Structure formats: C-alpha cells, structure tokens
Amino acid sequence: MNNAAPAAATPPAPAPSRTRGRPRGNPPTRESIVPVARSLFLEHGYRRTTLRAVATAAGVDPALIAYHFGSKKGLFADVMQFQCATALTVDDVLGGDPATLPGRLIDAVTDLWEDADFRQLTGQGEEAAEAIREYLERELLARLVEFLGGPDATARATAVVTILGGLIYTRWINPLPTPGSLTPSEARHALTPALRAALAPRPRTTASGGAARRAPAPSGGGAVRR
Q: pTM score, two decimals?
C-alpha cells in the first residue's frame, strides 16, 4: 500500500502584467491609425473627436494612441501631414524635368487645396494652421534647399515657399476676388514666371576695392532731362 502524501496542486500562474509603452507582438502601426482618425476628424471635427473614440474605431488600446502620437494635437498633426504628403509628394515634384518644376509645384499645391476633405480639415482651428506651417517649413522648404544646393539655396527656396504660401492664403484661406476666381490652369499660368525666377540661381555680385562700383552720374550737373 502506497502511503505517500498526494502531491500539492500547482498554483495557477499569475496573469501577465500589462506593460506600458510599446505593446508587444505586431500591433497596428501609426500608419493604420491615421486614416481612422482622419475619418473621425472629418465627421465630428477636432474638438469633438476624442482619443478614446479613435482607439475604439481603430480597435486598439488608447495607450497605443498616446504612445504613437503623444496627444490629440499630435494625432491631428499627423493626419494633416499625411494629407499634405499624399497630394504634395515632394519626391515626385522634385524628381522630374527641372524646366517644368514651377508648374509641378503649383499643380501639387492646387491639387491639395482643391480637395474638399482637406479644406474641411484646414478649417479646424489653430491646430490645422500649425500643421500646415510645419509641413511647408520642415518638408517642402527643407527639401527644396537640399535639392537646389549652393550658397543661395535657402534664399531661393524661401522665395518659392513664399510665393506658394501667398497663393494658398489669397486663394483658399482668405480669398481675394481676383486670385480666388482663377482656375487652376490660370493660376499656373500666372505664377509660373514668378516661380521660375525664384528658382533661378542668383548672380554673384563682385566688389572692387571693398566697395561696389558706382554708376556714373548723369551729365548736365546731375539734372535729369525731361
């Protein structure tokens, strides 16, 4: 007869604790969350869209939203950046024939702002304006400087972005009657010469003896003849 005591039952393993930060496995990426957030921002607006609502619609934990985007403002900025990058693809714009670059820049901006969903997003307060400024400064301007190269690249790129920013402001944000009434083709025709001039390398000025040469004074004691 076996008098051995029965073996003690093995206690159940404790449930794994939920770690904060990046979830393990293969969770949805930020690229898959942005389109869901975009739909909610379009439907409900920035103020009424919550991170919890985005997480529910995307089927993820709210902590994942916070991990990827930090805040609702950060998530909205990514939505705007995604929208800008989809229409104004800098690599495609800069990758063609340099002679037709001005027209491609105008076409990209026009395609972006003629999109009804994008214009709806841009009307959602300072958060939208800030996202657009960041895209123009950090993406378009910075990439143009790199693309143009040379000592005057920043000045040329700044001139280009200023022209495009003026088009955006006077045609869509606070439209003036004349720019606002132009068709995309007419806007392209009107602004291409200005962009071509802005993109052109600047002539280097030379000075003699540390000072630029002065033009000779007109004859006749300096008086201008009529």
A: 0.71
